[in-house]
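Notes continue from the previous slide.

Worked example: a multi-chain complex. Inputs as given:
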Amino acid sequence: MTDCTDIGDGLRICQECHGRNIDDVNLVIIHRSHVAKNARQSAFFFAKPEGGTGRKFPYHFYICEDGQIEQAVRLTKAAPGACNSNRVGIQVALCGDMRKAPPTPAQLASCKVLCSELSNFLGQVRVKGHSEVPGSFGDPNKRVGGPEECPGKCFPIDEVRQYCVANFVPVSVDRREYLTSKGYIL
Ligand SMILES: [Zn+2]
């Protein structure tokens, strides 16, 4: 992964996410985030009571419009972006509203590389849009085809999955070592 930014200082206004066993993780979940341009700005939204996630930051990764990937929550913590799937999910948010427009080419390219490396770590390609995961949202409007569908109908989720399958390489070293070597924060 390139350009991973530890934005821990920007997130101190949010509450600490709960710890989890990284061996339980088995799913990458894609979201949209149209409240801010980057994770630091987004943290100010989620730190408020009306932010909707108990003042915790809900995404592990934030992909900005220019393709910059920011890691906002350690992978050993459960980012609360997907209700029942928080313990097993890696939450990836793309800045923008993909109900109305596709991600930028730079964003999509970064998302493919991120999801591909995370799939290699998981040992399987299991990448889903938030609305595709049963029990991962409380608002019925978030169902597939609903007005709040996440990340939204303009996000090419099948293209991302196909990229991950085409680039799948089983990890031959320790799985945690693999993540660290790629610049991820555990
Ligand atoms: Zn979502």
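Summary box: Residues 31, 81, 130, 150 surround zinc ion (CB under 6 Å). Residues 5-181 form a domain with the Lysozyme-like fold (CATH 3.40.80.10).
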